[in-house]
Amino acid sequence: MSTATTHDEHHHGAPSGLMRWVKTTNHKDIGTLYLWFAFIMLLVGGAMAMVIRAELFQPGMQVVDPQFFNTMTTMHGLIMVFGAIMPAMVGFANWQIPMMIGAPDMALPRMNNWSFWILPFAGTMLVSTLFMEGGGPAFGWTFYAPLSTTFAPASTDFFIFAVHMLGFSSIMGAINIIATVLNMRAPGMTLMKMPLFVWTWFITAFLLIAVMPVLAGVVTMMLTDRNFGTSFFDAAGGGDPVLFQHVFWFFGHPEVYIMILPSFGIVSEIIPTFARKKLFGYSSMVYATASIAFLSFIVYAHHMFTTGMPVAGELYFMYATIMIAVPTAVKVFNWTATMWRGSMTFETPMLWAVGFVFLFTIGGFTGLMMGVAPTDMQYHDTYFIVAHFHYVLAAGALFAILGGVYYWIPKWTGNMYNERLGKIHFWWSAISINVLFFPQHFIGLAGMPRRIPDYSLQFADWNMISSLGGFAFGLAQIFFLFIVIKTIKGGEKASGQVWEGAEGLEWTVASPAPYHTFATAPEVK
Amino acid sequence: MSASNGGYYLPEPSHWPIVGSVGLFLLLGGFANFLHGGSWMVMAAGGAVLIYMLFGWFGTVISESQSGKYNAQVDMSFRWAMGWFIFSEVMFFAAFFGALFYARMWSVPWLGGASNNVMTSELLWPAFEAMWPTNGPGNVGGDYQYMGAWGIPAINTLILLTSGVTVTWAHWGLKKGDRTHLIMGLLATVALGFLFLGLQAYEYIHAYQELNLTLGSGIYGTTFYMLTGFHGLHVTLGATMLTIILLRSMKGHFTSDNHFAFEAVAWYWHFVDVVWLGLFVFVYWLV
């Protein structure tokens, strides 16, 4: 591998200050924008979660009224999914994919800018619904009809268009990633030599292109049902509210893999570095990722076991869903096998990665429990499902994101983060997130429904514990903000290699990575 | 910059994306506001900004292309991007075709008591007989007549299929370097495209005024207008793009071996054509 040119000259008339960020066509600038946007939305969505946990601290109504509570659960979900997790992943993709495959930039740099700069406008439109007459959307992040059509506030139409804008952004981002991976690889960087993070994002991009238009379709149906007299979700006109759930979950199930597959990629980068071994079963990791992506299209109705479906349908979706356990188990096995007899050290990124493997697996097991149709009847729409998807999305995707930030921030900023503070952040988060979500399995199995601001007395103790965990976990992320700012401002200088065991093109360039990397493509052997 | 990047053209910082975001925000936010009694002016302003952005952005791309900044690798990025963009459009239509199949195969028969829904039908709408087309047990939108396949829709099918041939014929002309041939082919394609749209508009007026078939005519009217309407929007977009290509051809743009913009629009046009075939079969013919 050749080393990259390191010149960092700015050309004539390159905008500075705010306009540099607004007009930038540089993948690193855009990656930074995505990551900061995601962080801000994480804190906004997190604040909403704090409202939820404050209300649920004790039985009875104390902090907010039920309508606002429902608005909080709705907006928390939407903001975390579309504002925090997805943009954070795209931020990683922007920073890392060109550097990992030896490309000078993303394939379509101007469109890359637009993909990002739609987001703040969409986010503004979404959050602005909170201040509208009738309040914000309060029908849950899944916005089932007819709650979101016949019975929804006027602000729902703004929500619909915010979703449209988020969709435009995601589709353009995904197209860019596919074009970059297919067309911008350095000579010798064959597909089966690509880092696993690139592979997982490549597959995720196909998922995005396939399902974001379907989401656009379903919100368009909502829009016309609400405003133009169509009957998609109205049985009187021959439509069916259940149709909404089918179209929504055709998007919604692949969507959960859109959030988790890049996490798999990040973890698959971190673990080999700190185990100082090559990733075990590279090609099986690629095929497992592709299998999960394929299966994600044909299992979606396991979200609808209690909705009313012919028994044959329930059986099919149950078996298909359980099948996902196979490629997922391949991944967990490979991560474990990579660590087996490795020369392991536990720097902060590795702690997050191991935490991810452990906690994500718990979320995977509870997912299996719910994939079984007859037992799902018991847990459906209880706190059990809340615990499940927070284990895979907060203890899963978010842990991978945090680990990824610690792993690559020396490359991005040129400074090492403070290892001691990073470890405190990990243990603080890892303990509090379990205090937060593990009890929710119990109260869910005991029958406490989700999205309800009050509960009966027997759930009081675990809810209080859960809330305490929640506040601690929230506070830990403010602490993370402090660590990030401290790292950007200074710290021990990082070498280009950063981590002893790290392999890949991004570690062959200086830290911080020059503004333009791989202007001349490196040779990959 | 192109030389220092191994030939791959990296654009300078650009203000077009942010202009586009502002336009999109005003257009969609203005539309939502308009639906709740606001003025239409914000929406119109957003549309104007968006059109301004499209002219500016594509204008920049065209001038970069004309000045030879794009090499074969850049061309390939455009090809992948356009191909997957069209795929995303396919999936958008798939959602609406899915709604049509769902209604025809499941929800309407179930409303009529099929499968294990006998009591639902008996208790809610005992008089409802499941058949297609239908405006549902509530007779939503009042009595109507459905749209047959063998009048205008069949003619429109011929028109679009012919336009698929003429655009290919134009491509032949471009490839052998015969500009008059190219322009004639494009003129014919654009004319057929707008003829299709004219006939479609006539059909809508006929449906509204004489058949009482409206967007509000239950699930049949819903799927009929949403599917044909979104298709019509895409034809409008495709015909507009073809017009731009025609104007560029007349200005002397494109060479026999470098004309991706033409091909991208031709791909798009064939996509619109294929969607129409699906519509003709499932919306018009099999009623």
Q: Care to describe what's here?
A:
- The complex is a heterodimer of chains A (525) and B (287).
- Chain A has helices at 18-23, 27-55, 66-101, 109-128, 156-183, 196-227, 241-275, 282-296, 311-323, 325-339, 348-371, 373-379, 383-413, 419-445, 460-489.
- Chain A is mainly alpha-helical and 525 residues long.
- Chain A folds into 3 domains: 21-52 and 65-183 and 495-525, no CATH class; 191-225 and 238-345; 347-448 and 469-493, no CATH class.
- The N and C termini of chain A lie close together (7 Å).
- Chain B has 2 domains: 1-70, Helix Hairpins (Orthogonal Bundle), CATH 1.10.287; 71-285, Up-down Bundle (Four Helix Bundle (Hemerythrin (Met), subunit A)).
- Chain B is built from 8 helices and no strands.
- Chain B has helices at 16-35, 41-66, 72-111, 118-124, 152-175, 179-211, 218-250, 260-285.
- In chain B, helix 6 packs antiparallel against helix 7 (218-250).
By CATH, the architecture of the largest domain in chain B is named Up-down Bundle
CATH top level class name of the largest domain in chain B: Mainly Alpha
Largest sheet of chain A: none
* H and E order of chain B: HHHHHHHH
Indicate the proportion of strand residues of chain B. Answer: under 5%
Number of domains of chain A: 3
The ordered string of helix (H) and strand (E) elements of chain A is HHHHHHHHHHHHHHH
Counted beta strands of chain A? 0
What's the N-to-C terminus distance of chain A? 7 Å
Number of domains of chain B: 2
